[in-house]
Amino acid sequence: MPVINRIAAFAEDMTAWRRHLHQNPELGQQCHETAAFVVGRLREFGVDEIHEGVAVSGVIAVINGQGDGPTIGLRADMDALPISETTGADWASVNEGKMHACGHDGHTAMLLGAARYLSETRNFRGRVALIFQPAEEVGGGAELMVEEGVLDRFDIREVYALHSAPGTALGQFYTTPGPLMAAVDTFHIDIKGVGGHAAYPHETIDPIPASLSIAQGLATIVSRNHNPLDDLVVSVTMIHAGTADNVVPETAYLGGTVRTFDKAVQAMVMSRMEDIVAGQAASFGVQGTLRYEVGYPPTVNDPVATDFAVSVAQDIAGAGGVDAAATPEMGAEDFAFFQEKRPGAYLFIGNGDTAGLHQPDYDFDDAAAPFGASYFARLVERALPLT
Question: Which end of the chain is more exposed for a tag (fewer CB within 10 A), N or C?
Answer without folding.
Answer: C
